[in-house]
Amino acid sequence: GYAGLKVTDRSDSIETAVGFVSWWVGLGILSSIGLGTGMHSGLLFLWPHVFRVVTAVEKCGHTQFESYSDMWGTRGEEAFLCRIDVKAADQEVGHFSLWKKVTLECFLWGLGTAIGEIPPYALCYSASAAGKKNKDFEEAFTNQSSSGEKNALSRYMASWLEWMLRLVERHGLAAVVLLSAWPNAAFDMCGMACGHFLMPFWTFFVGLVLGKACIKVHMQCTVFLVLFRESSRNVILTYLRNTLVMPVPLLGKEENLGDLLSDAILRGVE
């Protein structure tokens, strides 16, 4: 009976781990797949999860609580609940401890965004390897002679794409890391350029993982951790109350829009 219980516990742990990895990696893929038309799963799922972790840390005074079951639209019974057997820290939990609490979710989500960038690369790679011209690539990167008729924004985008093309051609892996390590709406074109120049898959993918999963997502996480701290929230709520003063008729009484938003945020925190 004991041996069977242990096997069951182990299988449950494996199932939970697979579900956890699949959830966050899958959300990352959904965020970047589809040539920029993917779902913004970071704003919908990852950063709200980080917000819940930050508020739980402030309530508990430590990071020794369960948060990994916050996935697939459900949460475990003990998710974000303070443990009675853990004493709250005498001083405020530091930024590094907060970051360690959410770093795995952020890395897996960033890994998913890297995987989602593979299709544009693969399409151009297969076309270039077969000796065929890729129409999408040609249209995106060819600087036509009629560019003088374009507006200033179009000319700027054309010069930006041309610069990115030269950077990828000359620097390979370093260029992929550089271009993927910050929010770059035109990164699909970088993947197409890498495929066009027949960059080896693992060179391209390792650059993506380094840029997106090891640098970019953790830079974003740092920003959101600062914004979600209580001191930052109070500044933001005060700004909303003082700025959004237009009245909103609601249930027979009028309230300022800033007050409504601030109260809704505070209820969510509580």
Give an overview in words.
With 270 residues, the chain is an all-alpha fold. The chain has helices at 2-32, 41-60, 95-115, 118-129, 135-141, 152-171, 173-180, 187-196, 201-228, 230-243, 257-269, and strands spanning 247-250, 253-256. A two-stranded antiparallel sheet has the order 1-2. Strand 1 and strand 2 form a beta hairpin. The protein starts with a helix and ends with a helix.
Can you lay out the helices and strands and say which pair or pack?
Blueprint: H1 2-32, H2 41-60, H3 95-115, H4 118-129, H5 135-141, H6 152-171, H7 173-180, H8 187-196, H9 201-228, H10 230-243, E1 247-250, E2 253-256, H11 257-269
Antiparallel strand pairs: 1-2
Helix pairs in contact: 1-2, 1-3, 2-3, 2-9, 3-9, 4-8, 6-7, 6-8, 7-9, 10-11
Instruction: Name the overall outline.
Output: globular
- By DSSP, the count of extended strands is 2
From the alpha carbons, calculate the radius of gyration and give it in angstroms.
23 Å
- Which strand order spans the largest sheet, edge to edge or round the barrel? 1-2
What is the share of helical residues? Answer: 55-70%
Beta-strand percentage range: under 5%
Q: Which segments are poorly predicted (pLDDT under 50) over 5 or more consecutive residues?
A: 1-7, 144-148
Order of helices and strands, N to C? HHHHHHHHHHEEH
State mean pLDDT (0 to 100 scale).
79
Through-space gap between termini = 43 Å
User: Tally the helices: what do you get?
Assistant: 11
Structural class: mainly alpha
Largest sheet: 2 strands, antiparallel
